[in-house]
Amino acid sequence: MAHPMRLRILAALREPGSAAAVARELGEPRQKVNYHVKELERVGLAHRVGERRAGNLVESLYQATAATYVVSPRLAWVDRARIDALAEQVALENLVAVGERLQQAAALLLDRAAFDGEKIASAAVEAEVRLADAAQRTAFLKEYMSAVGPILKKYGDSQGDPYRVVLAVHPDPKEKS
Question: What is an example of a Pfam family matching this protein (predicted)?
């Protein structure tokens, strides 16, 4: 996925198509697109779905294996320092996992809105709070959960559509104290 053209090719292959058709759509050389299609097939992101005759040639038709791809930032984290930090800090590992799930859900919901015409009932609330130390952070989380807990219980037992509620408390990465 390191090559930016591969994302464009996957987008073009939401519907079955040949490398030549994708090349025309993207305005790129057929050989170049064919190379990237083969690489996408090799790693399982595209697969051959058939063939068609085009003049004297038989073209292979490919399609992306999924409608949406969310690439985990963990794929780029090959250095030992990040891996060790996640292993040593359970709360940080959980923050990263929650962020990945939220990113995946947002991408899938965006696709449902963009390609299925669905209206997505969603909301996001972001706030900043200043916490002096670990004790204050712990007290804040306890008080927050005491306030939100009854609301979650009140609405959590209903028969309606399920919604995810996410709370993440972390330092602002742009500010260093």
Answer: HTH_20
In terms of Cβ atoms closer than 10 Å to its own Cβ (0-12, 13-18, 19+), residue 18 is buried
Q: Which residues contact 105 (CB under 8 A, 6 or more apart)?
A: 164
Pair 1, 42: CB distance under 8 Å: no
> Under a CB-based contact definition with an 8 Å cutoff, are residues 23 and 32 in contact?
yes
CATH number for the domain formed by residue range(s) 4-64:
1.10.10.10
Query: What is the phi/psi pair of residue 58, to 5°?
Result: -115, 115
* Residue found by looking up tokens 């204050």 in the block: 136
Dump pLDDT digits (tens) for 55-106.
Answer: 898 999 999 999 887 778 787 787 899 989 999 999 999 999 999 989 888 8
Rg of the Cα atoms in the chain: 23
Residue 32, CA distances (Å) to 11, 36, 50 in order: 16, 7, 21
Q: Which of 177, 72, 172 is nearest to 127 (CA)?
A: 172
Are 131 and 137 spatial neighbours (Cβ–Cβ below 8 Å)? yes
